[in-house]
Amino acid sequence: MSHVPIYTILGNHEGDSKYYYQYMANPEPEYYYTFTYGNAQFFMIDTDRKVNTGSKQYEWLEEELKKSQATWKFAVHHHPPYSSDESDYGDAYRGPSERGDKSLQPLVKLYEKYGLDICFYGHIHDYERTWPIKDNKVNREEGVIYIQTGGGPAELLKTMYLPDHGLPEKYIVIIIS
Ligand SMILES: [Fe+2]
Predict the structure, then answer these.
(1) What are the tens digits of pLDDT across the range 39-50?
(2) Tens digit of each residue's pLDDT (9 = 90 or more) over 118-145
(3) Spacing, Cα 32 to ligand 1 middle (Å)
(4) How many A from CA of 153 to the centre of ligand 1?
(5) Could you tell me the distance, in angstroms and rounded to a whole number, from the CA of residue 114 to the centre of ligand 1?
(6) How far is ligand 1, taken at its centre, from the CA of residue 12, in Å?
(7) CA 154 to centroid of ligand 1, rounded, Å
(8) What does CATH list as the number for 18-148?
(9) pTM here?
(10) Cα 155 to ligand 1 centre (Å)
(11) Degrees (nearest 5) of the Cα angle 94, 89, 73?
(12) Which of 20, 108, 162, 166 is most buried, by the most CB atoms less than 10 A from its CB?
């Protein structure tokens, strides 16, 4: 912990806890922020707070995306814009569903407008990765990829999406080049 940088974002179980601010040291105001690493810029958003058009985080995100010169643009937040989870957002793998949290669609529009590369999120405890999506359709040239990262600190769901590779599934590793 003393020599590995960790960037965090609040989820629905934290409840804006004072301990988040006490024990983490993210850029101000900490519940949302951006940072760069090499040619990548990360946009960290609190999806327990408002992200609708005109909200504080929405306005901030649009300004940051607009001026970003990064080769790679990544968003990170707790809730899924897209998911096939069967308990929270319908059963996309069986038929029509809500396909994720509809309150996040304003963010999706910004991601598409400013060429975000990948959006990472949790909340649902299994791994999923979408095709590049734009306007709710696969668009290999201009689409945004959405990655639901898996278990985090909790148990994984026992679904058809679990890989059987015998490795820990509590985190994912992304190599950027
Ligand atoms: Fe959650």
Answers:
(1) 999 999 999 999
(2) 999 998 887 889 999 999 899 999 999 9
(3) 17
(4) 11
(5) 27
(6) 5
(7) 10
(8) 3.60.21.10
(9) 0.88
(10) 12
(11) 105
(12) 108
Domain ranges of the chain: 18-148
CA of 118 to the centre of ligand 1 (A): 20
CB 11 within 8 A of CB 78: yes
Q: How far is the CA of 43 from the centre of ligand 1 (A)?
A: 19
Task: Label residue 29 by pLDDT band (50, 70, 90).
Answer: very high
pLDDT of residue 160: 47
Measured distance CA(41)–CA(53) in Å, rounded: 22
Three-class HEC string of the chain:
CCCCCCCCCCCCCCCCCHHHHHHCCCCCCCCCEEEEECCEEEEECCCCCCCCCCCHHHHHHHHHHHHCCCCEEEEEECCCCCCCCCCCCCCCCCCCCCCCCHHHHHHHHHHHHCCCCEEEECCCCCEEECCCEECCEECCCCCEEEEEECCCCCCCCCCCCCCCCCCCCCCCCCCCC
